[in-house]
């Protein structure tokens, strides 16, 4: 209350934390803090990477962005977050303005808009005002300096002339702009709608639509980056943080050491204990570490997110960008079997959407054919759009894809938002603005309580832990939280004489409700936080105990831990029938005996998926092969037949077998076949690094390096032949299916050619402009194969492309070296065939 003789000040009842960011620097923050203090406010300035102060101390947060660690917790605690403009608006109005209209939340996508309306119908005016205010904007009845947009039908109206005469920075736009923004739920570029000569009224229906890059997906177009970024000279984003790098990242020791060095140089530490970590970096949304870190409200992101922090030295939430968060091993329910093609998206936006389609569990196709199910397009003007409509495919914008992924639920394609395409807008400009919803992630991937799961969500059942889950933790502080003066940058003292109004750090000189100063961390607020943290520790004690037991197991916590159904799962708090009279020591001994028996009977976890080719000891001896495979499995080696699933490849030398060539595209660890013999002889899992395949003679003969090939494969990501259209004669030596598997594995298209001129229409085999203009035929000079060459040339030339007839060595050399080769060096023609016969 204001005492006698004291003047009431605007921010008297406000305790405000100012969050520094790249858009709100420390200098501006200090100025803002001084202004607030002059009008009665209490302020604290937060600068990363310090620990965020207790949210309960504040009534408001002032930030230019929602990318700070405490945003989600502030939202849960109903503490408003407002941009700095809120302070100036309060002073201008001489009363506290509604902070929602100044929210930095991008979901309120019109929060920078102050609109006034010109000569437009009253109904349109009411609709626009309502929509703008609902999405965070403001309405002004008059043309003022604060107005950003004037909605009008002509640039000759009174308000438009007034804005032009006063040289105000006002955009005069057609009502269509607001209509399209509200239909999409995104803010799009105003330029096509800007008077006096709006593009949407003058451009023809077939005029090309500009494509623009946007910064929302820079560094976030893939969940599986291949190149470690170069950090800035002064990296402090990890200052004081403990980071856990999960085993499921699958990165090599050299890269792991490099990442660790960068983190430690930036003031952070790498830990293997998830309970001590502030940040968990993992690949998949599963496993003990993922669930525990998520329940404790720690930052959980993937390698792409970590690289983004290293590149920009600026903290951003892993929930902000869809592919900065760990992915799921299984598809979104309903997405299995979808074949989705893209149109009119370019550059990083296209790469982002291709990777997002893969993350949903659907298939992204380079070409559009009648067996596609969906076309995702940035606008409606393209041959693909025309063809898709003729074939009855679903034609949608990227919002359908993004929101299905964010909600982990198939969204209906009949929603008008997903089928709306503004006339002169390329929706690539708003790609990447959809965020993940933590409540959706919690309900599906780390539920707070063990409860029945609907049949349509098998993922939750797969990821359930057998131990009792803990309660929600949105407002629970970190277990080792201890806020001190060193964690927060204090603002300078005000000239004002009153000590109670000076800029303060969160731990000291904070006035309580009783008027006491100098409260220590043992005050009521901190004591409650510690009690909550202690209670939280008791709740998750079984999980921690399980984690410690799992860490002692050979192989560690593989892929984040075991599931309830795993044979070698270590069970805690076993409630099997025991005598109640048994003393604790007897119980412990019985538990250890039971556990030892269980581990003895069960198989060890799979440590290696091994593809084998050229193992002569198994040729013609199925009985021995089966026995050896069982013995290998008991060691932790799973023998696989599919190159896509292998982590290791065993061969006696460099071979040109389909298994060997296909496996190279997945860059497995390649060992000599002797490794299998040695493991079987010693009956133990040996170190594959001691048996790496060395075959310099074959490398020289085939003209490539095995190590370079593996490095290239990691970069290619099975896209070496993407865009290549390769035909194969029917009588090819080795069989069509073998060559088709090689082409498919490397991202190309392989089609059997029987010499018929009838071929798929150009629309069915529609390729993007980036695809090769050449079409290839794998053949030899055998007379029966030569006979189809003229027909092949006729077919390809009719498609407007260049025919090239090549030896199979062209394909094999590319697949084995993982490098593109000039087809002309492998070319075949009738003259060459005649010379070879001579």
TrEMBL record:
Instruction: Name the Gene Ontology biological process terms.
Output: DNA double-strand break attachment to nuclear envelope; double-strand break repair
Q: Where is the composition biased (Acidic residues)?
A: 584-593
UniProt-annotated stretches for the region Disordered: 447-534, 566-604
Q: What Gene Ontology cellular-component terms does the record carry?
A: Cul8-RING ubiquitin ligase complex; nucleus
For this protein, the record's InterPro entries field holds: BRCT_dom, BRCT_dom_sf, CellCycle_DNARepair_Reg
Q: Pfam family of this protein, just one?
A: PTCB-BRCT
SUPFAM superfamilies with a match to the protein in the record: BRCT domain (SSF52113)
**Start and end of every BRCT domain?**
6-104, 104-195, 233-310, 335-418, 629-693, 716-828
Record PANTHER family: REGULATOR OF TY1 TRANSPOSITION PROTEIN 107
Q: What is this protein called?
A: BRCT domain-containing protein
Source organism: Aspergillus avenaceus
Q: What is the lineage of its organism?
A: Eukaryota, Fungi, Dikarya, Ascomycota, Pezizomycotina
